[in-house]
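Long-time lurker. I teach an intro course on protein structure, and each term I like to show students one example going from raw sequence to a predicted 3D structure in token notation. This year I'd like something fresh instead of my usual example. Would anyone be willing to generate the tokens for the chain below so I can use it in lecture? Attribution to the forum is fine with me.
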Amino acid sequence: FASYNTKGNSPFSGEQTDFGLGQSQYLAKAQPKRERKEIHSLIAIGDPIVDITSEIDTEIIKKYNMKWGDTVFLDENNDNGVYGELERMPEVRYIPGGAVENSIRVLAWCLNMNPNNKNKFKITMMGCAGEDIYKQKILNALNELNVNALFEILPGEKTSRCGVGIYRKERFLITQLRASKKLSEEYIQQNLEEILSNESIIIEGYMLPNKLDICKKLTECFNREKKFVILTLSAMFIVQYHYDKLMEIANKCDMIVGNIKEAELLSGVEGGNPKEVFDGIFKKLSPRDRLLVITAGPQGVYCAKYNYKRNQLDFIFQYFANKINNDEIVDLNGAGDSFLGGFLSEYLKGSSLNDCCRIGTEAASVILRNVGCTFPKNLIFD
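-- Reply from a regular --
Happy to contribute to a lecture. Here you go:
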């Protein structure tokens, strides 16, 4: 998604392309303002994380044998000292992080732009945190945006964190998953009634390696009650190394969200045109009315559905956004997460795919101009 914002755009905002599929009914008709009934509540399950973000000099990256662009995962008991270095910096910032946490915060921010939405939509973040100051920073940030927190709090454990070292536009990430990977099935069962009071759920792909049983239980419960289920592909390594787990959950989902590289890996069609990639994904999945939402660099955003009765793609919708110049970009971190948040803020309201993609890309463009997943509270999109 980041390269999409830096390398230009098509002059045709909201362009629809059929890739040789012919003029399906969807492509032939004008985009309606409202396509679906509203979804008034959403809960997301993922890793509550605090980003410890600091400007650094090149000596620190040499000291810890890092490379710019690296993302390193530390064992929960291995503190190599880098977090202390970052926290001692004069302008250290503590920013809620984690992919789905970013998406949820941006979703709530976009909804809150309209005061009438404050009590109309209920947004909840679910996960596990330790009993420490990091947990409180996350809860404070969620509360500011009217996001409910359904957190299992583990006394004696420490909240997950990610060290972000920045030098000019370069950065490294050091993630330490601690309490967030210890979410228990008992806690889910105890709060199942509250969880199922929501009309939709996001399952973060990062949860699948360690919490597949929880993800299966939740998707099955939401399926049984015919409620909306969203899955994020999250990362290349999730698709590559946890493929069977991913497919098991994907078959129970109504929307799958990722980037084009993840989609190619999932489909087994690398370097193909979008029609081949999306066709490959849908043919691997069980028949179901399902939306695929894929960010694709300079090609913008694709939304696709498959018609299993006719055994062919029903439609592909392609959206291009405005170009962002390189000198406007402050931080690439969280752009894809924020796109999903913006997209869902319109999807929940039943808006057209054009409006979903438009607000998604506008939200991401704001995040790109700020450090971390941060945004001005009073900004309003036209």
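Some talking points for your students: The first helix runs from residue 2 to 6. The CA atoms of residues 321 and 358 lie 7 Å apart.
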